[in-house]
Specification:
With 725 residues, this protein is α+β, with helices and mostly antiparallel strands. Among the domains are: 89 residues; 355 residues, Porin (Beta Barrel). Helix content is 28%, strand content 23%. It has 18 helices and 27 strands. Strands 1, 2, 3, 4, 5, 6, 7, 8 and 9 form a nine-stranded mixed sheet that branches. It has a six-stranded antiparallel beta barrel with strand order 15-16-19-20-18-17. Strands 10-11 form a two-stranded parallel sheet. Strand 13 and strand 14 form a beta hairpin. Helix 11 packs antiparallel against helix 12. The radius of gyration is 33 Å and the shape is globular. It starts with 42 loop residues before the first helix and ends in a 16-residue tail after the last helix. The relative contact order is 0.09. May be involved in the transport of sterols.
Amino acid sequence: MTQSSGSGGNLHHHGLCCLSAAALPAPDATPTPAPAPEPEAGAGAGAAMAVAGVLHKWTNYGRGWRERWFSLHDGVLSYSKIRSGAAGAECDGEGGGEVRLIGGASSRIGAERRPQKPVGVIFLKVSSFRESKSDDRRFYIFSPTKTLHLKTDSKDDRVAWIEALILARSFYSLRSLSGRITFVQSDASVSTERLRNRMQQEGLNGSLIQECEQIMLSEFSSYRKQLKLCYEDHLSLFGSFRHHFEEGKDASIIQGALTRNDFSSSRHGNFSEYSTTESDEFEKQDGGELTCEDESTFFDAADYFIESNESSAMLSSINCGESILDNQMQDSSPLQLKRRSKLPEPTEKERGISLWSIIKDSVGKDLTRVCLPVYFNEPLSSLQKCFEDLEYSHLLDQAYQYGKVGNGLMRILKVAAFAVSGYASSVARPCKPFNPLLGETYEADFPERGVRFFAEKVSHHPMLIACHCEGKGWKFWGDSNLKSKFWGQSIQVDPVGVLTVEFDDGEIFQWSKVTTTIHNLILGKLYCSHHGTMHIKGNRQYSCKLKFKEPSLLDRNPHLVQGFVEDNDGNKASFFIGKWDENMYYSNLDTSKVKSLDQLKGASLLWEKNKPSPNPTRYNLSSFAITLNELSPELQDKLPPTDSRLRPDQRHLENGEYEKANTEKLRLERRQRMSSKLQDNGWKPRWFQQDSQDGTYRFKGGYWEAREQGHWDGCLDIFGEFSET
């Protein structure tokens, strides 16, 4: 910008040239921007020094705690596997600066180890951490993509690591914040060309306007320097990120987390060193899964470590805190993965078949021995149907949380709602799932739901399917044998087996499924009903009984479920009522005489069915069921050859290739008939083993470790070509 030397001549000016009249300082005032807040003493030195050492990292139940080499430098915590070598005492401190080792083992291993490529990084700017109070050597670090469970060799080592993390993150947090603070502390507001013209219209002389321009230049120069410093700071930060992205990390997740933390609405409070909780979240805890008590003492990266008052009382009744916990669990998923919302468009037009010719030859036979054309199947296997029963697994997440705060009654109410919710997807499902081959498996890893599921067909005659699922603070397992027969106009299916839920605090609930009948096979509209009594037995204070009402021709309220919770003394503590295809309610009042939900008063909602899929097909799959057989190229490379997604007849049916599906189904059924010979010759399941006492099948582990390593030794190619000899 150039200026005229005269006091009254025309001025050549920048568009943002003057200050508003209300903000004009005295002519002799020297405009100086407010200084940025300085980090605490020692912060600069602490941030410049790299910290490294050995920490024990929890991997999984199969491998337990494993030693890893951790290095903290420039606000980035990286870790790698430890391998000895003769490369000298080179540590992972970047930039060749001084490295402070924490722990006695760190000095020994640091001198022997050779540098390794990091297998993981944590950016402290978008992370948080806390200590364990039950174990003085353990602490946790939460990032947008993972949760690290770490343990030191001693209590002093944990203190040293916590102090290093606090120092490193407070330095970078305050430094990145300083630019924003100075901009909001100035009272001056920048004017426009319109304001300058207005000042001239009011008769202000040129010299005063020129002084305004000089003040503006000074202010602008100061702000420009601050912007440049902030820009260089962010360039340095993203340069560090880019280095680690090249090591294979996902840039989009970290970038999204930075955006959320930098520009989200801020909260106010005092700084404290770190946060702790009264109870441990050992294997399944993530950043979003916290109790009411945790919520008052645990903070994310944008808040630094803000102090607040601890909760003074826990939930003591059914209704207390229910909405808080329910909303909390709904928002606890750290990841939102994109999954498909509809099936592929069929490539062929499906042709109908004669029902009567098939049914009349099957009356009285075991359903598992009846060969049906692919027209009667849906593109899912029975293994995948087992996982479909966990569509509402968030109910178990909520049950776990209620138990943690001492509300055992709400816990069993949520468990009962979960047991009923598994039937909701069976409405208007006219087709049967594929009968899996012996040794067929199915995995479901849903990190956005916090669950990991695995199932295997462990026996052909009798047909047995075993499954195991791990969630947020709970495990679910069971095996099931379906006894089913055709009765001309209907099919009756009687499940045989026990389902178990065990929470991390040791409380266990067990139940068996009720009878299912499929009606109107020949005449009328096809539909199914569930009827019988379900007993949910707990090993502590409460048990539950649920009655699934058997349908009748004149029934105005089909699908009705009623029941109650009782304590160990036989006292009824709460009552259920609802429909297995819609919702479930609980009440303190006896609902056994209520004939319709319209008569229900003062009851609270436990569970409600999800909305139907916006992309319906003739199979009438739910939105959740549509995702179960999805197969991406990345997933295909990780699956064993026994996974249901790789079954050719099922895949052809999903793609609408009906002729190929029928051909493959006949081929695989011939192979299926050979399975009894395999069992007679001593075949055993790969991932489950039978309990010698009660005969049930339990997951023996090792699957997820084999998946990580890509080692599928002992897994047969059950869907490939075979010789009948």
